[in-house]
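[Q] Does anyone have a clean structure-token version of this?
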Amino acid sequence: MRHVQEQSPSGSTNVCVDGDSKDDVASLDLKVSQLESQVRQAELKYQRLQRRIKSVDTELEVRKCILDKLEENVVVKLNGTSGKVKRILDLSKRLVEAIEDGNKFDVVVSNNKKKRRVLGKAMDVKGAKAALF
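[A] Here you go.
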């Protein structure tokens, strides 16, 4: 039986046995590189899904904190802009965006025309939870 060894550009050693051709080996190399590419794409997709899951978990944590504590009209001051938020879901969505962007935010509760600060200058969910509890 005849063996021929060749060094491929990728650094691996190709072994051709009688009946195998260089084209068959090249075809297998191509298939291997395609499979490696598919694995990399799957890993990237998995990482994106993990980030999305973390984002949803963060949003749920913030919503729970807000729903537990806030019942009155809420004014959000975010990066110098302020506006009334009528729905708690809008508030939690804005807070999650601020958290993910790393921005500071203030939440002020309006209670009988008397404003009291509930949450101020928090950078993450831990800070938000600490301020709310």
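[Q] Thanks! Anything notable?
[A] The chain has two domains: 3-41, 47-132.
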